[in-house]
Amino acid sequence: MSSDRLNSIAEHITPLHTGRGRGWVWRSRGWVCLLLAFLLTGCFGSKISSGSGGELTGSSGRTFSEPSPYGMVLVKRGHLKMGLEQQDSLWGKQTPVRDISIDGFWMDDTEITNSEYKQFVNYVRDSILRERLADPNYGGDETYKIEEDKNGDPVKPHLNWKKNLPRKPNEDELRAIESLYVTNPVTGEKMLDASQMNYRYEVYDYTAAALRRNRLKATNDNGGALSERNLNTDIQDDPNEVVWISKDTAYINDEGKIVRETINRPLSSPWDFLNTYIINIYPDTTCWVNDFPNADNEVYMRNYFSNPAYNDYPVVGVTWEQANAFCAWRTEYLLKGLGPAARYVQRYRLPTEAEWEYAARGKEGTEFPWENEAIASGKGCFFANFKPDDGNYTKDGNLITSKVGIYSSNSNGLYDMAGNVAEWTSTIYTEAGVDAMNDVNPQLSYNAAKEDPYRFKKKSVRGGSWKDPESYIRSAWRSCEFQNQPRSFIGFRCVRSLANSVSDKVKPAKRPKRK
């Protein structure tokens, strides 16, 4: 642009002193501003005027395309009449019935197997071993732990998983390895010390942090014109109000015992919504003996989890708390390998009671996870692993649990949603069931404190198991168990919410022809 043209434009612009030091505001005729903007646009190549012509077009962005998680199937969103419409007169149990809608999610196609849970146990074992190999008491090899970046700047200490464990350990390394095992003083049998298999994880409670009553400030910084905790302008908030929160925490005491506490304290910072858990994650293999008194189940106690012959069988003896720890580890394990895409991926978790029933009943919403009400085909082949007759567990071809996935899947592609092992859900058990929940993504959760009455620690269990009769394996049948109780007939599977839930394409309704 020539200097003559700029000078000509400047003649129509009057400087206006603001009276605030050296600040100036330029006042001009409207058409001059538009002309100047046009000329500057031509000079500097702005895309603002040429892109949308000043129209509202929205912000663009690249959509994240979520890959199918390994071993999981997509359960699309939909509607379900949850519960038993025909109440069970034989057992006299009333099950709440309600129409609900569920968003889509990923779900494990089978129950978590012994092999998959062993991967978790091995991870915890190797984590402890790496910590000890870096400990000066066991030689102090600092390469097993990373405490600074490549530039020498300090970082949060974390384990170096790229360094392999020693194949030919020296004396100190051997002591570190041996410290993870115990020897039975009577039989001389050497085994992994299950009491050391503790996994620590943290969960940020986004829901609690989002509640208005949990806002850090009662009022905004603009003099309290708007309330942070209450939008009702008729109510005057007390800026000195104390908001109390409950926070779960845990630590290892001097005796090596896990101490769990629920702290009640005034809200002070976002850290109050970060809960810490330490869980011993080794399955209780003695459940095979404790669940069945006066029975010879020692072989299952000794072999079911440790013998590779049972690798593809569902893991049992896992409490609700251990199942949640597995979900947390599985999430951590996945996110480490995803890179930038990790910000979109949702965490693994236990299914809600509503999600479980919706997935089990399939696309047709049937009573069992198969097409008809029969429990066996015309040829006498059973559709699930359960107890067909009193005392005759083997009539379906199995005595205890069976290998996962040997029976046909339901219409969602899910196996063993009836029988084999019952499955933990994330929902607290109440007699009211779905009646006490919303009709959109129903859920009722409660993190029971250690001091709470034991009855508050019941969780909903679904699906029935290898030891249950026909009535118990119906998709709508509800049962429960205490969250810290391991059982030889309860396992679990994981779900994961979709990274995005977009609208399905709906065909437009055809207009009726005019007569």
Overview of the structural elements:
The structure is a single chain. This protein is α+β, with helices and mostly antiparallel strands. Among the domains are: 3-46, no CATH class; 72-112 and 307-497, Alpha-Beta Complex (paralog of FGE (formylglycine-generating enzyme)); 208-273, no CATH class. The protein is 18% helix and 19% strand. It starts with a helix and ends in an 18-residue tail after the last strand.
What is the structure about, briefly put?
The protein is an alpha+beta fold.
Reconstruct the topology from this structure.
Blueprint: H1 3-10, E1 13-17, E2 24-28, H2 30-44, H3 48-51, E3 72-75, E4 78-82, E5 98-102, E6 105-108, H4 114-133, E7 145-148, E8 154-159, H5 171-178, E9 181-183, E10 190-192, E11 198-204, H6 206-210, E12 244-252, E13 258-266, E14 274-280, H7 287-290, H8 298-303, H9 320-335, E15 348-349, H10 353-360, E16 422-428, E17 458-462, E18 478-482, E19 490-491, E20 495-497
